[in-house]
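Posted in: Protein Modeling Q&A

I'm a second-year student putting together a small comparison for a lab meeting, and my supervisor asked me to include a predicted structure for Imidazoleglycerol-phosphate dehydratase. I've never done this before, so apologies if this is the wrong subforum. The sequence is pasted below exactly as I got it from our records. If anyone can share the C-alpha cell output, I'd also love a short note on what stands out.
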Amino acid sequence: MSERTATRTRETAETTIECTLELDGSGSAAVDTGIGFFDHMLTSFAKHGLFNLEIECDGDLEIDDHHTVEDVAIVLGEAFDEALGDRSGIVRYADRRVPLDEAVAGAVVDVSGRPRFYFDGSFSQAEIGEFTSDMARHFGESLAMNAGLTLHLEVTGENAHHEVEALFKALTRTLDDATRIDDRREGTPSTKGTL
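Accepted answer (user: helix_wrangler)
Welcome! Here is the predicted structure, written out as C-alpha cells:
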C-alpha cells in the first residue's frame, strides 16, 4: 500500500460510511452503496483513475438516493484531501474529455485547496435505475468541496446512462492526472509555497 492512502468514516442519522482510498493503486474496487448504478460508477471511477477504492455505505434508501450519494462524495473528498497531504510534488492541474457513444463529458481541475464547483449541461433522463441523474452533478460538487478542488464539469448527450458514465470517467481521469507525482517538481506546486 502506498503512502498516499486514507481511510475515512462518517456516521449520521442518514448514512454510515467507511471509505479507504489509495491514490497510487491499480484500479481495484470493492463498493457497496445499495444503489446498483452508483456502485457501477464508483467501480468505474476506481478502474479508470487507477485508484484503489473500498466503500461501504448503509444509507436511508427508503427515502431516496440523495443522502447516500452526497455523503459518499463527502467522505471520498475527505479521503482525497487526506491522502494528498500537503500536495507536495503533484501535477496540480489537469483536464480531460471522455466520450461514451453519443455522450461527451469534460472535466477541468485545479487541486488548489480552494473548493469551487461549476457545471454545464443536463441529463436526458431523470433516473438511471435507482440513481437520480442530477445526483452525478451533486456528487461532483460534494467531492470538490471536501477535497479542496476547483472543478469544472460539462456534459452533453442523448442518454443519461452514457452522460453520467462519461462524466465519472472524465472526472476520474482528470483527478488521476492532476494528483500524480511530477518527478521534476520539488515541494508544493504554488508560488505561495502552500496549497
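A couple of things worth pointing out for your meeting: Residues 160-179 form the longest helix (20 residues). Strands lie at 5-11, 15-22, 29-32, 52-59, 93-100, 103-110, 116-121, 127-128, 131-132, 150-156.
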